[in-house]
Amino acid sequence: MACWSVFDVAGKRQALLEIDEKASAQDFWDNRQRSQDLMRQASHLRSEVERYDEISQRVSDAIELAEMGDESLVGELESETQRLSELVDRLEFITMLSGEYDREGAILAIHAGTGGIDAMDWAAMLERMYLRWAETRDFKVDIIDRSEGDEAGLKSVTMAITGSWTYGYLRSERGVHRLVRLSPFDSAHRRHTSFALVEVWPDVQDEVEIEINPNDLTIETFRAGGAGGQHVQKNETAVRITHNPSGLVVSCQNERSLTQNRESALRVLRARLAQIEQERLATEKAELKGEYVDANFGNQIRSYVLHPYQMVKDHRTDHETANTSAVLDGQLDEFMEAFLRSAG
Fold this sequence. Notes:
Elements: H1 9-23, H2 32-67, H3 74-94, E1 105-112, H4 116-136, E2 140-148, E3 154-162, H5 166-170, E4 175-182, E5 191-203, E6 217-222, E7 238-243, E8 248-252, H6 258-289, E9 300-305, E10 311-314, E11 320-321, H7 324-328, H8 333-343
Parallel strand pairs: 4-9
Antiparallel strand pairs: 1-3, 1-5, 2-3, 4-5, 6-7, 7-8, 9-10, 10-11
Helix pairs in contact: 1-2, 2-3
């Protein structure tokens, strides 16, 4: 079908053939890192081509049914046409996810900001929002580190979200999120403004070569504990790792053993270093163009207003909706896609 040219299906098939040809060589696995990268690339390409082929076949079947002229099939054809239109729109959008790490999973962290107890409660609301978003997509979520608030909500949480194009979508969420509402923690029930910071890094794990010199790390252990110091473990299983060259500090206390927490902390560190490298390259590119933009996390990206009116608005794209409950229940795709379309 000619319409598939926008998705470069022919190019993907050719790339698959070339990888298969390389994989048949006797020395293919001599360079294990390179061979694993190629096989992972082949898996992504094969999945995309199979998806295109499936939709193409459904389009052909629908056309064949329409040409039969059977009026009893009109309702079924209309429904199938709508479903196919949505699938094609989705595939067209995926073509914009062309960043180096867009296919990877993501490490997402939420930190309560200005606003006291309300800010900690807001951080917990954001945690639920992203968990619901991941759940609707059948993505896997692992909580790496979680620090509960002293009275309500949470101080911070770090989670790994695994699924196709996870980082590609979630990179749109990086920045400060602002909540305006009548505070449930204020006895006078006054309106409060709270802030939370959302950070997102690609979960590169061992799939992308990020070298970490063990001599550059300072590793500390401590006892993991729950809210308000409850449920403190007798053994030191929690880990805090400082990457001395960059000054990055990561911690993990959610796993049962010291080894597991250390591996999870290194996973987050690797993701953060990959993000720093990506931002460095992007900055160099922007400076060459004469268009340097300060991309610090202090910039407010989205407001969630629950009083005196209902509105969620993204300040980068002006995309907005009055259905605040749907957004807080994880319906974020419209905001993510609006950002990615504007960025593309």
